[in-house]
Write a structure and sequence with these properties.
The protein contains 1 helix and 13 strands; from the N terminus they run αβββββββββββββ. The longest helix has 19 residues, at about 1-20. It is mainly beta and about 130 residues long. The protein has one helix spanning about 1-20; strands at about 30, 30-35, 45-50, 50, 55, 60-65, 70-75, 80-85, 95, 100, 105-115, 120-125, 130. It is elongated.
């Protein structure tokens, strides 16, 4: 009888451990970077990632020989609205990331573009990120 009670105790402890294990968390999907080049050699990359409930659009201005301004945008593709627009100047290098608290289940895409005298010279759009937290 003692052996049977001990076995039941081990089984109850194991069952309690299973019940207390945390479930797997959903992760955002998509993200990454995309690059684009203009005929004159200007180059940009647009990137997007997520951390918890925040989206983090960023990118690179790799070459901006005819730039008068550059922007990093974030669009909520689910609602078709622009949610961020940062003027990042014309310096080359990494721009961002810019944190934005997103809506669970919505799809987002970032864009980086170079402008010369109000004419878009080159633009790159990131892959779409589906936010899940």
């Amino acid at each position: 009888m003692k052996k049977k009670i001990a076995s039941l105790g081990v089984a109850a402890t194991a069952a309690a451990g299973i019940l207390m294990m945390p479930g797997t968390a959903q992760a955002s999907s998509g993200g990454g970077c995309t690059s684009a080049w203009a005929d004159d050699g200007d180059q940009v990359s647009a990137c997007i990632s997520a951390s918890g409930s925040n989206l983090e659009p960023d990118g690179y201005v790799i070459d901006a020989s005819v730039c008068t301004t550059a922007h990093v945008l974030l669009a909520d593709e689910t609602t078709k609205t622009l949610v961020l627009d940062y003027n990042v100047g014309c310096g080359t290098g990494h721009v961002g990331p810019f944190a934005y608290k997103g809506v669970n289940g919505h799809k987002y895409q970032s864009e980086v573009y170079i402008e010369e005298s109000n004419i878009q010279i080159v633009s790159a759009a990131s892959p779409v990120e589906t936010l899940s937290y």
